[in-house]
User: Which sequence fits this backbone?
């Protein structure tokens, strides 16, 4: 059972940050590069992982994953099919992963055999923002199907991220979404964030995404 003990009066975010720093130290001791993948349900987080893992394997890299969801194991099953070590994390009622929960998952992974670790956060554009997990980079994925105002409506998640993926751009015309507006909104909100335009269906942006991971 997930149990995090915090003394009365202790800052929850401060405690999480301390544990996140410990997670990052542990991962770096094992030379594992980790990525927190955030975004709404249906934005394409799992699909991107499915597409990029074979590319990373082709480069000779060993990949692992943590699948975060409120309940169920749908994403876990999809990642397991990639023939990589995967841990399923169900939060129960929480709309985000936290560093303490992730630490328990990390301890169950063969860290000495991994180069890359994907941590797919719970599908939400708000809750994960304040809870670092202990990764080298945080990546937010949005889809044009969420509306071209999705970036402007959720500024904080972009401000804490290192990379922003605008996914399903092949559907932009069909859903009446303006990709340039999304690009501009992200540039205004977080100009330092690396932007990638992507279509998992056509493959656009997948190789660029894989290359950017190795620069983080």
Assistant:
């Amino acid at each position: 059972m997930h149990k995090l003990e915090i003394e009365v009066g202790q800052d929850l975010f401060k405690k999480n940050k301390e544990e996140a720093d410990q997670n990052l130290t542990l991962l770096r001791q094992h030379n594992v590069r980790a990525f927190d993948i955030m975004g709404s349900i249906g934005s394409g987080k799992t699909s991107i992982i499915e597409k990029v893992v074979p590319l990373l394997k082709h480069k000779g890299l060993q990949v692992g994953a943590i699948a975060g969801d409120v309940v169920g194991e749908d994403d876990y099953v999809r990642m397991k099919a990639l023939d990589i070590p995967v841990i399923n994390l169900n939060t129960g009622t929480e709309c985000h992963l936290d560093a303490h929960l992730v630490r328990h998952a990390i301890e169950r992974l063969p860290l000495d055999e991994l180069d890359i670790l994907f941590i797919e956060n719970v599908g939400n554009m708000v809750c994960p923002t304040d809870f670092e997990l202990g990764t080298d980079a945080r990546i937010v994925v949005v889809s044009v199907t969420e509306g071209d105002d999705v970036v402007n409506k959720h500024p904080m998640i972009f401000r804490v991220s290192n990379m922003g993926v605008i996914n399903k751009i092949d559907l932009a015309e069909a859903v009446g979404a303006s990709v340039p507006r999304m690009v501009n909104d992200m540039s205004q909100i977080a100009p330092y964030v690396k932007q990638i335009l992507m279509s998992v269906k056509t493959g656009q942006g997948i190789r660029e995404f894989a290359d950017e991971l190795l620069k983080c």
